[in-house]
Amino acid sequence: MVSTSFLSPSSAWPTLIQGGMGIGVSDWKLARAVSRCGQLGVVSGTALASVLVRRLQAGDLTGDIRRALAACPLRAEAETVLHRYWCPEGRPDATPYAAAPMPRHDAGRFWTGLTALAAFVEVFLAKEGHDGVVGLNLLEKIQLPSLPTLFGAMLAGVDYVLMGAGIPRAIPGVLDRFARGEPAMLELYVEDDNPDRNAPPVELRLDPSDWVPGLPPLHRPRFLAIVSSHVLATSLARKASGRVDGFVVEGWTAGGHNAPPRGAPTNATTSEAPVYGPRDEVDLAALRAIDRPFWLAGSFASADRLASARAAGAQGVQLGTAFAFCTESGVTAELKTQVIALSRSGQLRVETAARVSPTGLPFKVLNVPGTLADPEQIVQRPRRCDLGYLRVAYRRPDGSLGYRCPAEPVDDYIAKGGDPADTVGRLCLCNGLLGTIGLGQRQPEDFTEPALITAGVDATELARFIPPGEANYTAADVIRQLGLPA
Ligand SMILES: Cc1cc2nc3c(=O)[nH]c(=O)nc-3n(C[C@H](O)[C@H](O)[C@H](O)COP(=O)(O)O)c2cc1C
């Protein structure tokens, strides 16, 4: 059992957090590289079941995944997954990947075990070979895989859990329960057009003893909530289901999803880029008053910005964009070269797209040719929902549960009772983001899903991380730029 040997080796707070970047951009290689330098490396927990099954079908030529699976206490599940998905020679390029089951409340034991295994693998590999700390990033908006992902990560001894894109009030309590070996529950968010229905809540549940008999107590990771305002931080500090150990406070220039501008509707109906203003500045005095450690995020990738954050009372900073294009990240080498060249030549544009993400949140997109930022690619790609991580549960007229995503084929969405206006401008983030890490699906129309690249406004200044005479840069180069030892 891995639990006791993986107790957190360090109780000191990190100065630098390498932000979780999905899907698979902050994979175990990047997190391990950062943790080895004494800072907090974070693996993305998003869509890990699909990442695992595709990596196995790509051959796992280095044997890393099979080594991690062999260390996992979920023995029967590891054997089944290996048997079902591993292609020793690697799957031929034109062959579609066999899919992981789509997330649902009733997805069943195979999906739950696969999801837990995938999180175990990612955290196990990130922690291997050093005694630094490793975190796991999850999004509140993607609820269905949360319990098995947290359980698998805790089996591998994860030190921190970081969660944003919503209000993760229930998660600290889940960590407490899993640490004691007790079952944990989450209430599934369900859209219901008929508020008079009085339907019972749908409970997601995972009992550790159903998976590992005789499990000893697990290390309870520290929980950091990712927020964009002190109001949410204060509410979480008071009302979460367990201890929130600190906060990452993210501004609107950050990569990935952003909070909508203060006062704007949460689900924009126009495709105009959101306009941020003084009301979106974080109230640092209010944040300090909460009296928990906090880290600032959103364009903090320099020694000066780190110093300003610390002067404002922050423990340190969280960076994403700077790490997204370093050699250890999951982004393909070709896309990194393309993004770095565009950044160096001043041609890289970072758009805050109001309508692209099915979540309804603003989402940063880079204008890289050949990716889904290119209108021609969007027109050519038939809408399809075959991964399903951003689907939301809804109640059918007969009371049963269905799942829909505003980026799926419009007719399907309407047939499920969805509002056609919701579908306008949406892109399939699941397929696009897997394309970014070289795991794009080969679709029946004979094309490979194109990438969709997200990053913050710092992407226009990547050249400053590249050592003289080099074409690219490492995670350690980023850390040194902040004046920290690496
Ligand atoms: C490629 C990319 C993917 C990201 N994905 C996630 C994610 O899955 N979950 C999350 O909480 N934050 C995500 N972020 C945000 C980062 O964790 C981090 O907070 C942010 O990048 C910090 O701002 P910066 O980009 O200006 O450094 C992502 C950022 C990037 C660049």
Entry summary:
The chain has helices at residues 28-36, 48-57, 64-70, 75-85, 109-127, 146-155, 171-179, 230-239, 284-289, 303-311, 321-324, 333-344, 375-380, 410-415, 429-436, 475-481; strands at residues 16-18, 41-44, 134-139, 160-164, 184-187, 190-191, 203-206, 222-227, 246-250, 294-297, 316-319, 350-353, 363-366, 392-395, 401-404, 442-443, 447-448. The protein is of the alpha/beta class and 486 residues long.
What is the C-level CATH assignment of the domain at 4-329 and 473-481? Answer: Alpha Beta
Strand content: 5-15%
CATH architecture name of the domain at 4-329 and 473-481: Alpha-Beta Barrel
Reported for the largest beta sheet, the result is:
8 strands, parallel
- The whole-angstrom Rg is 21 Å
EC number: 1.13.12.-
InterPro entries: Aldolase_TIM (IPR013785), NMO (IPR004136)
Organism: Actomonas aquatica
GO molecular function: monooxygenase activity
Description of the molecule:
This protein has 486 residues and is an alpha/beta fold. The chain has 16 helices and 17 strands. It has helices at 28-36, 48-57, 64-70, 75-85, 109-127, 146-155, 171-179, 230-239, 284-289, 303-311, 321-324, 333-344, 375-380, 410-415, 429-436, 475-481; strands at residues 16-18, 41-44, 134-139, 160-164, 184-187, 190-191, 203-206, 222-227, 246-250, 294-297, 316-319, 350-353, 363-366, 392-395, 401-404, 442-443, 447-448. An 8-stranded parallel sheet has the order 1-11-10-9-8-4-3-2. It has a 3-stranded mixed sheet with strand order 6-14-15, with no helix packed on it. Helix 1 packs parallel to helix 5, helix 3 (64-70) crosses helix 5 (109-127) and helix 6 (146-155) packs across helix 7. It binds flavin mononucleotide (FMN). Residues 19-22, 25, 44, 46, 137, 139, 164, 226, 250, 253-256, 297-299, 301, 318-322, 324, 454-456, 458 line the site of flavin mononucleotide (FMN).
